[in-house]
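can u do me a favor
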């Protein structure tokens, strides 16, 4: 404990693989906007159709948790979802390292609220690179 701001928090690079699928992962419902509250994305991205959204596959365990479909198959969205168990990755989920916003259904987005961690601004043994 050196009395630094990030003391007692893990390094973000040390978070487990697929941390967004682990027990305790939190998601906040964003309704019809793909803009996150916790992270920054330029406001014009919300209406820009050329910006790719991460869309969950209906066979995904994460889709099941966030959609929470009723007997009729229609999603019952909750304002906040906390995973109560570890989930296996499915399809495209297995190819990503980090997640900000996911699309569960057309016009239905959730923001992943990553647990607090520290991003280092400096690192050990830096090298100076000169081009010219």
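np, heres the sequence
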């Amino acid at each position: 404990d050196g009395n630094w701001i990030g003391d007692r928090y893990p390094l973000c690079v040390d978070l487990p693989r697929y941390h967004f699928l682990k027990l305790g992962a939190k998601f906040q419902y964003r309704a019809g906007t793909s803009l996150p509250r916790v992270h920054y994305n330029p406001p014009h991205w919300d209406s820009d159709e050329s910006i790719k959204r991460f869309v969950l596959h209906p066979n995904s365990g994460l889709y099941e948790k966030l959609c929470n479909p009723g007997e009729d198959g229609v999603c019952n969205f909750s304002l906040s979802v906390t995973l109560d168990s570890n989930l296996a990755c499915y399809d495209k989920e297995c190819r990503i390292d980090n997640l900000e916003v996911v699309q569960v259904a057309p016009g239905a987005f959730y923001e992943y609220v990553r647990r607090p961690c520290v991003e280092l601004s400096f690192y050990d043994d830096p090298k100076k690179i000169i081009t010219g």
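The longest strand covers residues 26-31. hope that helps!!
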